[in-house]
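WARN retry 2 of 3 for item q-0093 after timeout on previous attempt; input resubmitted unchanged.
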Amino acid sequence: MSELNNASDAAVVILNWNGKRYLEKFLPSVLKYTPGTRIIVADNASTDDSISFLKLEYPTIEIIENETNGGFAKGYNEALKKVNSKYYVLLNSDIEVTENWLDPLLEIMIDKTIAGCQPKILSYQNKAYLEHAGAAGGFIDINYFPFCRGRIFETVEKDEGQFDFPVEVFWATGACLLIRSESFHSVGGFDEDFFAHMEEIDLCWRLKLGGYKFMVAPTSSVFHVGGGTLPYSSSRKTYLNFRNSLFMVIKNHNGWLFPKLVWRLCIDGIGGFRFLIRGEIDQLLAVLKAHASVYKNLGKFLKKRRVIQRNSSQANLTGLFKGNILWNYYIKKVKSYVHLNQRLFK
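OK item q-0093 returned
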């Protein structure tokens, strides 16, 4: 363990909303395997008995009570304003941590050009497999669709040690994200207009436009339930993912925006048609609703874009896949990260 960073430099902040069942199940592992570190639960105005449970069963854990449920983005922004720490560890309430999980993350942060990092995310339900939300590090393709080492769309890979080496990635998962507090606040934290989903990709992208790096440290591993707040099949999740993905493109695409945006809207239209022919009308309506929200908020996000683009002269695009992940997955049937053309990674 490096003497430059230790457990006391970090604060583990768990955002909670009506998640008493997860706090009961997973707080014991956090306390057991994270000695010497501040543990904070930031509560998003829960209506269950999460707060009374914490005060009774875990009186040493710090509690921050947000006044409203502003989602993942606002919930963390509000809470982290009250946390004075060199590093924040944003940890989902439905994660089981493992012995020595924090040290490798702190060690990799010795490089001051690294803004944040993540561990390897494994499935709690099937511990031999990687988990959807982050797997072994996040990337985006030429059209800005996200995927991971170990997870492309619906396909997750078995963990056979094939990703047990650190690499620079485009984005690190918000399910378990260690980030420099200075870096987080320098770009205004999460975009609260996202509410939830993809806000961590947007945050990483904005920091990368300023030249920072993100890493995965797979000698650290955690187990994630996933879908704890919204199931992966939820139409609400579909709406947030489609909408927020377009919000990211508007804000962060470096180049002519409208050709890229129109192309993305067309690709989304194909996705909507796919929902239609499968009879998933609620999913189709979610896509249409997402596009309507983008049109409604276009002016606001163009203003955000102008601010971001003024500060993007040192852009670091490592982790960008200069191929089409949709074409690879659905047409070429490439289901594994290692079978993608590695020469197309920037």
